[in-house]
């Protein structure tokens, strides 16, 4: 997605060897116009699928997921990382290992928000090691739901997440695929100009 990649080149900051800071439009301050364009692009890429629901994970998956839900006219559910007092006990739960933090966290979704006849589009902001995406898939399968695909805003293609998901046979659509951080600049995977 040209508009997103241009924005990454303008506003993205590379931190250390493998982290892209995008706090100006996605992870802290949010650009609603760009998020809407992203949501529309996800809707286009998965238009062949009879999607009934979008599932994402708090917090940074929510903005792009809501705009995709608006375009597809389906509800959006976000997995929670922390138990809230209102959540109750009737939960689907998956553990997600964080490579950056070296800890395993549980993510949860209340059972009444995913049903066996749902056909779910998963959305997240980043695809790095794929742990969060695999956790979301696990929750969908616990519910007996089917998965239409996974929509990712920014994929770091030099990390193993995409390969991990592709092995499961699930379609992955990433709107910006980063090949590398070279000499302080972001380079994208070739043939992705759409
Ligand atoms: P991983 O092993 O699957 O990569 O997960 P990791 O624990 O490393 O990631 C921790 C958080 O950092 C996740 O967001 C993930 O989306 C995000 N992340 C991974 N790589 C990058 C990157 O290069 N840039 C940015 N900006 N984020 C990255 P989170 O903790 O769930 O935070 P949030 O969704 O509440 O913002
Ligand atoms: Na994040
Ligand atoms: Na995230």
UniProtKB/TrEMBL annotation:
Q: Supply the source organism for this entry.
A: Isobaculum melis
**So what EC number does this one have?**
2.4.2.22
Q: Where in the cell is it found?
A: Cytoplasm
- SUPFAM superfamilies, per database record: PRTase-like
Question: What metabolic or biological pathway is this protein involved in?
Answer: Purine metabolism; XMP biosynthesis via salvage pathway; XMP from xanthine: step 1/1
Coarse class of the protein's main subcellular location: cytoplasm
**Residues holding xanthine:** 20, 27, 156
The record's function comment reads: Converts the preformed base xanthine, a product of nucleic acid breakdown, to xanthosine 5'-monophosphate (XMP), so it can be reused for RNA or DNA synthesis.
What's a single GO CC term here? cytoplasm
Q: Which family does it belong to?
A: Belongs to the purine/pyrimidine phosphoribosyltransferase family. Xpt subfamily.
User: What is the official name of this protein in its record?
Assistant: Xanthine phosphoribosyltransferase
Annotated GO molecular function terms are: xanthine phosphoribosyltransferase activity
Provide the organism lineage as a comma list: Bacteria, Bacillati, Bacillota, Bacilli, Lactobacillales
Q: What UniProt keywords apply to this chain's record, in alphabetical order?
A: Cytoplasm, Glycosyltransferase, Purine salvage, Transferase
Q: Which residues bind 5-phospho-alpha-D-ribose 1-diphosphate?
A: 128-132
Q: What class of enzyme is it?
A: transferase
GO biological process terms, semicolon-separated: purine ribonucleoside salvage; xanthine metabolic process; XMP salvage
Q: How does it assemble?
A: Homodimer.
User: Which reactions is this enzyme annotated as catalysing?
Assistant: XMP + diphosphate = xanthine + 5-phospho-alpha-D-ribose 1-diphosphate
């Amino acid at each position: 997605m040209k508009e997103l990649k241009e924005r990454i080149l303008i506003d993205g900051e590379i931190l250390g060897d493998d982290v892209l800071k995008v706090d100006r439009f996605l992870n802290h301050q949010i650009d609603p116009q760009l998020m809407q364009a992203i949501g529309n692009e996800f809707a286009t890429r998965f238009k062949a699928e009879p999607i009934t629901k979008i599932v994402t994970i708090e917090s940074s998956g929510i903005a792009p997921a809501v705009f995709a839900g608006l375009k597809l006219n389906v509800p959006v559910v976000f997995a929670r990382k922390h138990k809230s007092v209102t959540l109750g006990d009737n939960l689907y739960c998956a553990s997600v290992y964080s490579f950056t933090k070296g800890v395993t966290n549980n993510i949860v979704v209340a059972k009444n928000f995913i049903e066996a006849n749902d056909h779910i589009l998963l959305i997240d902001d980043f695809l790095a090691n794929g742990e969060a995406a695999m956790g979301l898939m696990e929750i969908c399968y616990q519910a007996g739901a089917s998965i239409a695909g996974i929509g990712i805003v920014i994929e770091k293609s030099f990390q193993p997440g995409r390969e991990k998901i592709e092995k499961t046979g699930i379609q992955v659509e990433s709107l910006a695929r980063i090949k590398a951080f070279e000499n302080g600049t972001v380079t994208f995977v070739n043939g992705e100009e759409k």
